[in-house]
Amino acid sequence: MATNPPASVYEFRVTFRAPLPFVYEWCTDYSPEDPDLEKESYVRKILHQNARQAVYEDLYDTRDGWMWSRQVVTFHPPDRWHAEATGNHRDWSLDYQLRTLPSERTELRFRGERRRKPLGEKNPPKARMERELLAAWKHFAHALERDYRASHKRTARRRR
After folding, report:
1. What are 88-99's pLDDT values in tens digits?
2. Do residues 137 and 14 make contact, with C-beta atoms less than 8 angstroms apart?
3. What does DSSP assign to residue 81?
4. CATH fit for domain 8-153, picks 1.10.3720.10, 3.30.70.360, 3.30.530.20, 3.20.20.140
5. Residue 52: what are its φ and ψ, rounded to 5°?
6. CA–CA separation, 90 vs 95, rounded Å?
7. What is the spatial distance between Cα 62 and Cα 98, in angstroms, rounded to a whole number?
8. Antiparallel, parallel or unpaired: β 90-101 and 80-87
9. Could you read off the pLDDT of 63-83 as tens digits, one per residue?
């Protein structure tokens, strides 16, 4: 009987210059354009999305062949969501928690458990994986803050 390799746990925090309600809505609105925001080249297909849940698939072309994953995301408004990801190389269990900070800022706390498949490659070292995840979320932060500033300007113009 084959046993699954142990999970690796990855954690990081990132701060957004936008209020929590905007951050929550932005982060839980999945789109095929998400790879562009992350500065990556995978393909995202949205299979289902409503107020309670989103299901999407990502497909990566790697030097070793295709890497596929399906994420089932469950929303817990107003400040958290959870995802279970299944793929051909590894599985993830992901928790996202938002917290309000002073000056219209919001902190995202990410915690992910990554389980590799018996035939998948070994999980990367904790420091490297956390660095890569944080870099991706910093790209998201830039796009989110840009969208927040643009929406804030539109609202200010409408009031005049």
Report:
1. 888 999 999 999
2. yes
3. E
4. 3.30.530.20
5. -105, -25
6. 17
7. 32
8. antiparallel
9. 878 889 999 999 999 999 999
d(CA 116, CA 5): 6
Contacts of 108 (CB under 8 A, 6+ apart): 13, 14, 15, 16, 23, 27, 96, 97, 98, 137
- Distance in angstroms (rounded) separating the CA atoms of residues 87 and 93: 12
List, in order, residues 6 or more apart from 147 with CB less than 8 Å away: 26
Strand extents, DSSP E, the chain: 8-16, 43-49, 53-62, 65-76, 80-87, 90-101, 105-116
Distance of alpha carbon 42 from the chain centroid:
14
- DSSP code for 122: P
Q: Exposure of 156 by Cβ count < 10 A (0-12 exposed, 13-18 middle, 19+ buried)?
A: exposed
* Domain boundaries of the chain, sorted by first residue: 8-153
Can you give the pTM of this predicted structure?
0.86
Query: Among candidates 22, 17, 30, 9, which has minimal Cα distance to 107?
Result: 17
User: Would you give the DSSP letter of residue 146?
Assistant: H
pLDDT given at position 120: 63
Contact 148, 140 (CB under 8 A): no
Q: What is the pLDDT of residues 38-57, one digit of tens each?
A: 888 899 999 999 999 999 99
